[in-house]
Input
Amino acid sequence: AQSVTQLDSQVPVFEEAPVELRCNYSSSVSVYLFWYVQYPNQGLQLLLKYLSGSTLVKSINGFEAEFNKSQTSFHLRKPSVHISDTAEYFCAVSEGQAGTALIFGKGTTLSVSS
Amino acid sequence: KAGVTQTPRYLIKTRGQQVTLSCSPISGHRSVSWYQQTPGQGLQFLFEYFSETQRNKGNFPGRFSGRQFSNSRSEMNVSTLELGDSALYLCASSVGSWTDTQYFGPGTRLTVL
Output
C-alpha cells in the first residue's frame, strides 16, 4: 500500500534563510508526486508536481522539488524564504491508474519569522 | 472561471444524525474527489466520482457515501454521525485524468456534538 511520510511536522526558519521540507513515500508501483500548500484560512493549492521526465520540478514562486527514485524521496526546497511562505505544506502521491486519488502526508508547518 | 464551491461552509450536528455536503466543481470538470482532514489523521481520501460513477474509494466505513449528478455536482452523505466524524471535508475537482491538476474547495467544517 502507498504511504507518504513527512519527516518534520514543524519547521521554523528566519526570513531569507534556505529551507528543505522532507517527504518520503512507499509504493510498489510507479508513482506521481505532488506538493500542495495550504495558507492560513485558505484551501489547498497545488505547488508543483512530478509526473515524468526531468526529476527536478519548479514552482512559479521559487520552490523546487527533486524526485529521487532510489531514495523514494521528493523533498521540497527554497533557497530563500519570505514571510508570505508561512503555510502548511503537504506531500502527496498518486499511482495514477486508479483514478485521481491522492495519498497525503501529515503535513509540515513552515513558520517564517523576521 | 469560478472555483470549486462547497456548501455549507460550517455545520453542527449531534451524534446519530445524518448530514449531506455539497460540492460544485469548476465548469468542465468531470471528476470530483472527497477528502477528510483531521488534526490526528491528516488528509484522507474518501472517494472519487467521474461521470456519475464512483471510480475509486478509500478506506472508510459504509456510513460515508456519495453521488454525482449529470452536471458533475457531487454530494457526500454521512449517516449515523459519530464524534470522530468531526472534520474539515474537502472536495477537489479536475478534468478527469490523473495527470490533471486537482483544484480544492474551501471545505465544509463539520462538528459533531
Notes: Chain B touches chain A at residues 4, 31, 33, 35, 42-45, 48, 50, 55-56, 58, 90, 92, 94, 96-107 (CB under 8 Å).
